[in-house]
Amino acid sequence: MSKLVLPLKESVGVPVTPIVKVGDHVKRGQLIGKPDGLGANLHASVYGTITEINDQAIVIEADEEQPKDFVKIPDTDSNLDAIREAGVIGAGGAGFPAAAKYARPIPGGHLFINAAECEPILGHNISRITTDAEQIIRGAEYIKEIVQAKDIHIAIKRYHTNTVALLEELVRTHDDISLELMWNRYPEGEERAVLRDSGLYKKPDGENAVLKTTELPYAANAIVTNVETVYRAARAIENREPVMSKDITVAGRLNGDNKMVLVHKDVPVGTLVGDVLSAFPNMADYGELIMGGPFTGHSTTLESPITKVDGGIIATIPFPNLHGEKVGLLACACSATPARMKEIAEKMNADVTGVEWCKNAVVNPKTGTAKCKNPGICPGQAQTILKLRKGGAKTLLVGNCTDCTNTVMGVAPKLNMPVYHTTDFARRAVDMRIMRHILPENNE
Fold it and tell me: Which residue range or ranges hold the RnfC Barrel sandwich hybrid domain (predicted)?
């Protein structure tokens, strides 16, 4: 770790304006950038010297010796101000400034702590709970007070039995905290799915309701926040600690042919992917490096930096060569975008003949992004598959959720259409079963 690259824009909102200059020596935790509007403060993640400032990032050359102490955030009038000063943002990937989210109260509402670890392979949220559960619980209580919620719900997949048992023991003395046990399927952990499956948001007839694609959890008088975000908020309040690091899951073809999943806690923000992977000198040949999870992550490079929102680095297996096979893409609002799917198809040497969205996807015509009408509940894919086949597709590349993929497998084999999933190459790299049919354990 010699050079660190800290992007000026790591959160929703505006980029920060640097308040340092080239040649300055900075300390770990020192404020180096402030936003003029919605955004989050940026702090140095190491002791070092500023070697470059451009319109994208601040570059720091790290000192050889790195003291463990850090510059604390200033005293504040409130816990909310401490979270703002510390530059806490949504660590689950959304990157919304936490202070801005918590500044909107939900009197008598529900605070959800999202520990579902929605993406497969990733494990850093669960790992953080096992080592810092008590501080996370305290952080949840701080946020509950800030937003004026009446209770706290921790959403976690039930198959994490040891972590569930740990939390059950800790919340036993908290009458305002309960666990929401979720199924082991994707996209359990999407915030609207968390609210729907909790049973706290109802239709007039009493059935569980799902928010509209245009609605935020505020519409259900609720706030959903990632467990690492809560941990960083607690560190800001109790330790006066700014956000200087990120928890990362590192997985895939890391040690020869061995498949490994490791958790690196407190990786300094700005650390290059190549420096993280330098710990594995015997990496096997890989297809690509994914930043994030296998569903919604994106391809990355050794020169890319870790930011406050990144959660994983996955080295996939090499891609198969389809030798120009005509492939139809079936996109899902909860997974890879069509652009990302085309990138994967190109790496497979496939000829894309058409793109269709799942029927539940509501596509924004301006951005091309989509949201699912009912995350994880699939209406069936026969029509879309038949349309892709009529357009010339001989093979399918899908990016669907667990339920959608299950319905694909009810149709594609009957049409003699082979199926690849965008997550196959990451899953195979860690010896995880590829997604096709729903198994009983998905609903245990």
Answer: 3-59
